[in-house]
Amino acid sequence: MTARSESPPSGDVALDVRDLRMRYGTKDVLKGVSFTAQRGEVVALLGPNGAGKTTTIEILEGFRMRSAGEVSVLGQDPAHGDEAWRARLGVVLQSWRDHGRWRVRDLLGYLARFYTPYSTAEVSRPWDVDELIKVVGLAEQSRAKVQTLSGGQRRRLDVAIGIVGRPELVFLDEPTAGFDPHARREFHDLVHRLADFENTTVLLTTHDLDEAEKLADRILVLDGGEIVANGSADQLARELTTQAEVRWTSGGHRNVHAVAEGDPTEFVRRLLASDLGVTELEVRRASLEDTYMSLVHRAETYQPGSDDAGAARADQAGADHGETDQDQAGPGPDEGGRTDQDRAEQNEGVQS
Ligand SMILES: Nc1ncnc2c1ncn2[C@@H]1O[C@H](COP(=O)(O)OP(=O)(O)OP(=O)(O)O)[C@@H](O)[C@H]1O
Engineering a disulfide at 9: which of 13, 42, 68, 211 sits with its beta carbon 3.0 to 4.6 angstroms away? Predict the structure, then answer.
């Protein structure tokens, strides 16, 4: 591993990842991933199955050796992290099935004791077990055997185990998989509490865009081995998909027009000024899900040298030129950039 070539991160930086690369055999899974996370920041790592999220987290936790790149986790290279450094981290893995015969409180109490030597003037370790049990919503199950817990309760226990040492940085790999909406909301409150009151940095992976939007200060989208987006949910929706959909009814037909770039106001103004007899006008901004899908789609179809790239571009061109009758009847020129899905919706709108 090379020495750090740039200045070390400031004390407010919990995670500093530069040009991280990971190769399994001949397969490059991470191709130069760079990002930082500040103390107290909640960062969500999104990406399709197999994008390399778990690999990234495992490298940052020190469980997996990277192929190349520079990584600093709480000021330490995880490849050389000692016990004292590890005590400052919390880890919640995807699945963990063990200690079934232990009772919830006994297990947490047992694990908590390992953190006592790592208590500092700034951070008192471990977490008081009874308080922690309340915080994660397991007070009623405190005396229950772990094997009797439901899936959601079990996941809460996983989280409790991950934070019992009052970590400064928590890695959560798909923490709410299997949660019901109530448990999910309680978990979100817990993450906010960790970040806001304990100044804990949280790096979580999720497939739930709604969750990423609600929880994360910043969203990283990993695809094709690279970070293809990095920003708040609002920034991603604003900067990456400027697309909006204008829907209206005229002459008994539903219509959809995708405004790919800029402000839909001008289109709407022309629409209303036209003699189309417009009713039920609705302007819908791209959601985070739209943004995410278009990002991943873009990253997957536009890889240089990929056999699919030409076909994908041809598809895109087809979509751009695939004007429907309704487009021609519309109030102005097509802003272009529609996807196949948009086109399908348009056709559906025209025919309905
Ligand atoms: N130990 C390993 N040996 C070889 N290949 C691996 C190994 N671990 C992961 N991979 C491969 O690396 C890629 C990234 O896997 P990873 O588990 O990091 O993705 P992920 O983004 O977490 O996926 P998911 O959303 O499905 O959990 C996948 O193609 C996977 O098959």
Answer: 13
Which of 233-237, 314-318, 341-345 is predicted least confidently?
A: 314-318
Please enumerate in sequence order all residues whose Cβ is within 8 A of that of 338, keeping only pairs 6 or more positions apart, or say none. Answer: 258, 260, 319, 320, 322, 346
Distance CA 183, CA 245 (A): 34
207 Cα to the center of ligand 1, angstroms: 15
Average the pLDDT over each of 16-25, 55-64, 190-199, 231-240 and give the range with the smallest value.
Answer: 231-240
Side-chain half-sphere of 73: how many Cα atoms within 13 Å?
28
Ligand 1, atom 27, lies closest to the CA of 49
Q: Which residues contact 247 (CB under 8 A, 6 or more apart)?
A: 254, 255, 256, 257, 280, 281, 282, 283, 284, 349
Report how far residue 261's alpha carbon sits from residue 339's, in angstroms, rounded to the nearest whole number: 13
Give this prediction's pTM: 0.73
Ligand 1 lined by 177 (C-beta under 6 Å) = no
| Predicted complex: ipTM over 0.85 | yes
Q: pLDDT, tens digit, for every residue of 215-235?
A: 999 999 999 899 988 999 888
Give, for ligand 1, the residue of 23, 28, 29 to mutate: max count of ligand atoms closer than 8 Å to Cβ. 29
Q: What pLDDT score was predicted for residue 111? A: 93
Determine the longest span between alpha carbons in the chain, in angstroms.
Answer: 77
Q: Which residue in 207, 200, 199, 203 sits closest to 218, CA to CA?
A: 203
Nearest atom in ligand 1 to 55's CA:
18
Q: Is the dihedral of CA 309, 19, 231, 44 positive or negative?
A: positive
Phi-psi region of 252 (alpha: psi -120 to 50; beta: other; left: phi over 0): left
What's the CA gap between 336 and 49, in Å, rounded? 30
* Strand locations in 214-268 (E): 218-223, 226-231, 244-250, 253-259
The residue type at 119: S
In whole angstroms, give the CA distance from residue 317 to residue 221. Answer: 26
Q: Which domains does the chain have, with CATH numbers?
A: 13-232 (3.40.50.300), 241-351 (no CATH)
